[in-house]
Amino acid sequence: MGVGETVRMPYEWMSFTTDYGLSDGFVAACKGVIARTAPGVRVIDVTHDVPPQDVRRGAVLLAQVVPYLPAAVHVAVVDPGVGTDRRGIALLARDGVLVGPDNGLLTPAAEVLGGIVAAYELTVPDYWLAHVSATFHGRDIFAPVAANLANGLDPGQLGPELDPATLVRLPEPHRWVEQGRLESDVLVVDRFGNVQLAATAGDVHAAGLALGAQLTVRAGDAVLPATLGTTFGDVAPAEAVVHVDSSDHLAVAINGGSAAAHLAVVPGTTVVTLES
């Protein structure tokens, strides 16, 4: 299938995901560059509160959000390797284009958007700002490249085409299932203290766990009794529920409280065990 049959250009929409936060002017500078280059494009801020340099968290958040966004150029910058020999890339997926560092941040979202049709390394400075800082490629390279793509630039003009097999990909999170028991890495802890696991609804079925089952949740030395349910209100206030969340992942929550605080978990490094 050819690129012209799978990728729509120009784009009216752009999404923007970073670990920049909002206490500095980094986000404004990038959006200013976008507005000056593509004044008609509308920008959706996915989040700028990815924990600093947490590439996996940014990748997970972006991949879980993009299915609900309009066709867009998606710019994501969580880039601890900025200024090194890591590549800047543009990925053409069936349902969108992604721009950012080649560090695993973009590939999960590209797969969600229908798979990678083509990939390009950003090597042509014609589409960057005239002066490029070694530490702010979000402003000086990724934002202007994305804006030019939104304007309809042929992505083949950005630099050489890459073999998608050479792209950096993050290791698969740990998931292990047996009858009555499963283990899973923590993917995300949200602002409510809900703990999203890499395990999915399919893993619950594979473990033979049924709604209403009484579970023991373990994370390190922490132990939390919980009920397998469908929503927070399935348990009394201050009690724990394990449920399939809105992204089809298993999550541990406390009704009116914080499961993350009780379990003392950290995304990406903590393994949670559920036992019936």
TrEMBL record:
<comment type="similarity">
    <text>Belongs to the SAM hydrolase / SAM-dependent halogenase family.</text>
</comment>
<dbReference type="InterPro" id="IPR023227">
    <property type="entry name" value="SAM_OH_AdoTrfase_C_sf"/>
</dbReference>
<dbReference type="Pfam" id="PF20257">
    <property type="entry name" value="SAM_HAT_C"/>
</dbReference>
<dbReference type="Pfam" id="PF01887">
    <property type="entry name" value="SAM_HAT_N"/>
</dbReference>
<protein>
    <recommendedName>
        <fullName>SAM-dependent chlorinase/fluorinase</fullName>
    </recommendedName>
</protein>
<feature type="domain" description="S-adenosyl-l-methionine hydroxide adenosyltransferase N-terminal">
    <location>
        <begin position="15"/>
        <end position="159"/>
    </location>
</feature>
<dbReference type="InterPro" id="IPR023228">
    <property type="entry name" value="SAM_OH_AdoTrfase_N_sf"/>
</dbReference>
<dbReference type="InterPro" id="IPR046470">
    <property type="entry name" value="SAM_HAT_C"/>
</dbReference>
<dbReference type="InterPro" id="IPR002747">
    <property type="entry name" value="SAM_OH_AdoTrfase"/>
</dbReference>
<feature type="domain" description="S-adenosyl-l-methionine hydroxide adenosyltransferase C-terminal">
    <location>
        <begin position="186"/>
        <end position="271"/>
    </location>
</feature>
<keyword id="KW-0949">S-adenosyl-L-methionine</keyword>
<dbReference type="InterPro" id="IPR046469">
    <property type="entry name" value="SAM_HAT_N"/>
</dbReference>
